[in-house]
Design goal:
With 164 residues, this protein is mainly α. Helix content is 76%, strand content 2%.
Amino acid sequence: MSQHHDNEESCCHGDKPMSHAHGKATSFGTAAHATLHCLTGCVIGEMVGLMIGVTLGLHPYITMGLSTALAYISGFSLTIFPLMRRTGFTFKSALKTIWLGEVISIGVMELVMNAVDYHMGGMRAGSIFTPLFWQALAVAVPAGYIAAFPVNFWLIGKELKRCH
């Protein structure tokens, strides 16, 4: 586990720690990096799910479920496989190391992104070639980041998530 921690420190270097509850230290830079990493995985799955759902004319709730499932798959993949390469962890060990923080972070991000997209009408746009589809996505992505940032800051401070 210490090898994993050492690699994380080199990943998130250069940030001055900010005081956090219960004497833990974390930084805005570390949380920003972890949130951006999470967003990358989420957006890959989210976009693919939305594109499939809109193109096939699926009900918005089915589209949300599909995009959320794909966001979890891509988000976990972008975390687990690099961790396995850096540390030599098995898949099971890597999953045990990251699962809770990723489930919470991706969950918050997906909840907000899907809500924004749904309420703006992007997933009911009828086609991925309409401006509404892309406008909704352009608002949903930053909204997901903004919602997940304080969650990641807290998770890192509680040592439930680490920088990737």
